[in-house]
Amino acid sequence: MTTWTTTERIAQGEVSLEGDLTLTEHATGVVLFAHGSGSSRHSPRNQAVARELNRRGFATLLADLLTPEEDTRQQRFDIGLLADRLVGIIDWLRARPGTADMPLGLFGASTGGAAALLAAAARPDAVRTIVSRGGRPDLAGPALIEVRVPTLMIVGERDEAVLELNEEARSTMRVHAEVRIIPSATHLFEEPGALESVGEEAGEWFQAFLTPVPYKRHPALDYMASAPRWG
Distances from the Cα of 132 to the Cαs of 37, 69, 106, 155, in angstroms? Predict the structure, then answer.
């Protein structure tokens, strides 16, 4: 699979964020990553998942949601701010030539999972599906029941507190939602083979739900077909 990566600068009001956009030959969709607290687009765990998605033919964007000056503990847990930044990047992708017409999915890790849920609720016509890794759906608050797209929550078996939060979220959501448990894994999926399992689960989910938009017949064609013919 041929891939090429560029570092993009994404304007967000008065700040500019950096993101690594990897495009693949004949990409069938694009996945935007939302990182967890204290992480960035250089997260080795998210980069590993992104490589698996690239291998399966998806474009990926790993973007920083905070500038270096903003990267404080308080800002890292400002889910509203992170979600707003994510919405801005979604709009940027939808306007950018080369990605504008691609189906869009979100991949959120830890607190980034909550930001992804909030962003999906805010952009229901743009986001097609969500995958979270060790996510904190409880931090999405009331927006959780406003999510309209299929959602996969991947959690480590030994990450017991987060697993319980994800199970509760699944029972609360009004859309198709699943929890997939990675055996023996903890929150960071550092155990042998755990991260590879995350990549496989995410890849299969996106292949199932992140597909090209089906052709829609233009209303004018229906009118022309039904209009009376004279002569």
Answer: 14, 27, 8, 8
Q: How far is residue 85's CA from residue 148's CA, in Å, rounded to a whole number? A: 20
Give the sign of the dihedral formed by CA 92, CA 51, CA 107, CA 58: positive
Which of 139, 197, 148 minimizes the C-alpha distance to 169? 139
Domain range annotation of the chain: 3-226
Q: DSSP 3-state assignment of 81?
A: helix
- 73 three-state secondary structure: helix
User: pLDDT tens digits, residue range 71-98?
Assistant: 766 677 889 999 999 999 999 999 999 9
Give the CATH architecture of domain 3-226. 3-Layer(aba) Sandwich (3.40)
Distance between CA atoms of 231 and 217, rounded to whole angstroms? 27
* DSSP structure string for 127-173: EEEEEEES--GGGGGGGGGG--S-EEEEEETT-HHHHHHHHHHHHH-
pLDDT-wise least confident of 76-85, 138-147, 148-157 = 76-85
Q: Rounded to two decimals, what is the model's pTM?
A: 0.88
pLDDT digits (tens, 9 = 90+) for 208-230: 999 875 434 334 334 333 444 33
Strands 30-34, 104-109: parallel, antiparallel or unpaired by DSSP? parallel
Beta strands in the chain (DSSP E): 3-12, 15-24, 30-34, 59-63, 104-109, 127-133, 151-156, 177-182
d(CA 128, CA 106): 8
d(CA 114, CA 120): 10
